[in-house]
Amino acid sequence: MLNFSFSDHRINTRTWEEDGTKVRSHTLELYSEDGSRDQAILVFDAELDTDRLGAIVGYVTHEQGQGTSVVGWFPLEEFGKYKRILERGGDLSVHYRLREGETDNGYLEHLGIGPTKTIMSVARACEPANKSAAPARALARM
Questions:
Q1: Longest dimension (CA), the chain
Q2: Between the chain's N and C termini, which has fewer beta carbons within 10 Å?
Q3: Strand pairing partners for 70?
């Protein structure tokens, strides 16, 4: 499992009306603490288009000198778990695992945040968009 520590975060909440119904989404931005330019952007959205995305959890890119960039998509109801982890504080990291066969860049099999030594919350497994999602697996004390 790969990870990077972060010390700064920002939460953005967006609310709009669609067909007379209020819709909300949250974006959680996490920034590395060591100037390495590592970052993660996690989007929590009730209108997540799972038909289009399939079981994709997110992706990662890594370029020499530019740091690691992780992007992930989650159902809106997952946001509370992540917010509670941030409120607890401590030495927190973004934890992720690339899909088998991927190297530095590619789709993610797992994604979560938590204490550097323990994964507190992990997204569902990632499979190609034309296959169904595997159920979420809680990974602890890796």
A1: 47
A2: C
A3: 40, 60
Residues 6+ apart with CB under 8 A from 77: none
Q: What is the pLDDT of residue 138?
A: 31
Average pLDDT by stretches of 10, the chain with 142 residues? 88 90 91 83 81 72 87 89 89 87 82 75 39 33 26
Of 64, 59, 10, residue with least CA distance to 36: 64
d(CA 10, CA 27): 8
CA angle, 115 then 125 then 26, to 5°: 65
Report residue 25 as tokens: 């989404």
pLDDT at 51: 64
- Count helices and strands in the chain by DSSP H and E runs: 2, 7
